[in-house]
Amino acid sequence: MTRRPLLLSTLVFLDLETTGLPSFSFKPEITELCMLAASRFAVEQPRTPIRVQNKLTLCFRPVRTMNSIASKISGLNIENLFHQKDFDNTAVTLIQNFLTRLDPPVCLLAHNGNRFDFPLLRAHILGICGPDYQLMDCKGSPILCADTLPMFMEFKSCLTSSSPKKILSDDSGVDSMNTSGETSQDTSNLPVSQSTPKKSTATSFHLGDVYTRVFGSGHANAHNAEGDCIAVMDIVQHIGIEAMDWLQTHYNDFNTIKLNFNLPEQKPSDPAVFPYQNQPVESKNKPVDDAAKKLEAIQID
């Protein structure tokens, strides 16, 4: 949807790593979050290094099941996240304080953000702070957001190679976790004739594929939240001033993004308590403990 033109000042590239993809029976949790902020005036200048950047990177220990495929892709698992905090009220405070320091209007950018990153982040925030909580900038205006997937599709002429390709209009945004529908129908086994066109290759708009088409090789630290943020920023900067013009009419209020699901409400946690400290620890002297309990019961009788 096209909005009234708004001169954005700060772009915040957002990426989340999670415990898996959302489904009817699975509600993913955030395991890593990165926000990389840069001035739009720096991003709109191609081939000029963006020296001034502000970053917030946080890792979280999930409280529920972690999908093995997601763990393999991101490199995050229960073991290396053992001593991390879960996504709690202190994380929301850090995010809000980070955004408050930025020159408004502030706009979050994420690849496939409308379907994944934005509703997932909102679900986490509202599960902790309640349904009325809103992310605001330093002037009390809502934090904005925009999805780079439709932007990249609109500017496909400067993001694709010169060979003819069919454009794929739907993209999961999660490169290796959902690749169904990436390519057109395979016709390699069909007879070739004058009425049978040669096989055409679908154009993928997965982040890694777009980056490779533009820069000739894959981006560093793929499926690392900060690495993916840098990759999106590089591509937006490659588009240049046209990307800024597009963003200024294709933004949304982050606080109105529709949720894909609701997470259970969480009570404010003690900043000094880590999730592993709340796990029940089985006694190494279980037989002795059981015997003691039986003896105590006999004495009471």
From TrEMBL:
User: One Gene Ontology cellular component annotation?
Assistant: cytoplasm
A GO BP entry is: DNA catabolic process
InterPro entries reported for this sequence: Ribonucl_H, RNaseH-like_sf, RNaseH_sf, TREX1/2
A GO molecular function held by the record:
nucleic acid binding
Instruction: Name what cofactor the protein needs.
Output: Mg(2+)
The UniProt record lists the Exonuclease domain at 10-245
Segment Disordered: which positions?
Answer: 170-201, 270-290
| Signal sequence interval, chain numbering | 1-20
Q: Where is the composition biased (Polar residues)?
A: 175-201
Keyword set, alphabetical order? Exonuclease, Hydrolase, Magnesium, Metal-binding, Nuclease, Signal
Q: Which family does it belong to?
A: Belongs to the exonuclease superfamily. TREX family.
Q: What is the protein name given in its UniProt record?
A: Exonuclease domain-containing protein
What organism is this sequence from?
Calicophoron daubneyi (Rumen fluke)
